[in-house]
Amino acid sequence: MHFSKNKEIQKTAKSLVRDCGWTARRGGNHICVYQPGTGIMLTIPSSPSCPRACMNWHAQLRRMIRAVNGVMPQMRGFA
Hints:
Layout: H1 7-19, E1 23-27, E2 30-34, E3 41-44, H2 53-69
Antiparallel strand pairs: 1-2, 2-3
């Protein structure tokens, strides 16, 4: 399945579905991947136009995984 025109997003999304057991569904204009057991959804941009789109998508994925695993991200400026 083709997820995105961005090579890095395509590679990561393919790995999530193939190796980690995530489920991919097409909904409207975007493909969504669902984490197994939680049902949490992450939308994959099919044709990202922003140069930072790849970094933003990977950051969103990291934040989602941390939230599910119960690891709170560190907030700068707070002890």
